[in-house]
Amino acid sequence: MSVKKKIIWRLISFVLVVVVLFAGYNVYSMFSFFHTVSANKPFSTGNQPLNTAKWEGKGVVNILFMGVDRRDPNDRPRSDTMLLASINPDTKQVSVFSIMRDTYVDIPGVGKSKINAAFADGGPELLIDTVQNFLKIPIHYYVATDFEGFAKIVDAIGGIDVNVPEDFVHADDGIYDINLKKGQQHLNGQQALEYVRFRGTPRADFDRTERQREVIKLIAEKMKSPGMLVKAPQILKTIEPYTQSNLGDNLFSLGTLALSLDASNMKTEQIPPVEALTETYVGDEAVLMPNVGLVRDYVQGILNDPNSAANASGTAERNSNSNSNSSGTGNSAAASGSGTKSQNGSSKPAKSGSGKTVVVTGETVNLRAKPGTEYQVIGQVFQGDVLTVEDQVGDWYYVQTESGMYGYVTSALVQPQ
Hints:
Aminopeptidase, SH3 type barrels, LytR/CpsA/Psr_CW_biosynth, membrane, transmembrane helix, SH3-like_bac-type
């Protein structure tokens, strides 16, 4: 063998050794990370068993992501964010569902409440039981992290680029205040946290969950880049203290599946969909009352045919009169208003001239373009606001606000003055 060939062979051997060592270090880092986050349970109460389904490496796998507002380690935080990722290994399709935190459901062993209360009552384990009971689909894996963990993930991948639709400003506790300017910009971890937490837009939590799904997609796309493989051990070490998960139970199969996915084709949806919820009031709380049968049909429609989310939505709406509501409350009818449209886009009937006034009892109540939760939110009114009733369509009032705006509000969240 010539000297030149020996040098080339030694060079190739050296590169192969480096690659093997690098791959081995990455695998070791991953196993170490998942062992630690499975053993340490900062969010568990100790009172609930983990009832996840078993995934054998084939078929659809469902992963529940939970983001919690844990500012005081001694408090039992609620889950501020709940994202359900469903992955089909055969089609390589990923569907991500945002579960609205005000959804009113049955929490096993506790009773009916907002779904985000399940985390406070029994940690990730009870929230998993609640979601499985609500949607009737198995949850195989979960990941729970807090505000700081989320911010560190975004910082570790070098930030994200988003277009902030308007100025986001909200005074909180001095640490988690929100102050983002309108426009296209690069966000670090803390700023990305502000972006996904803000609820001050006209559609409130509906807009917020849309932004959360947007950011998850951006993070997934960046994590797939070759440069992230080099950073993987550092990223895992950074978020380890803030994370609890059981993903390590089937690490090789999940890792192989993750590498085969195309994050750019990720489908993102909301649970409950607008046609399967009613904004109402229970006790002192404004809640989203789901038509449970419609919600399950909607989710199954997307999981069984991930390319036809619109068809799943349409099927749920068409079947709205034939499905029972397991929560005991039916979906409000989507009645159409008659007459001309007002300048703000609402369907404006002839004024009754009754002069009746009502007071808003809900903390924040959406003003809609037409009577029904599926119609566009054109503004908001707040607890104590006085509204002039111009007409009534079913369970909806057509009102004029004190500022002169017209729109529809549900009668469940107002009362006669």
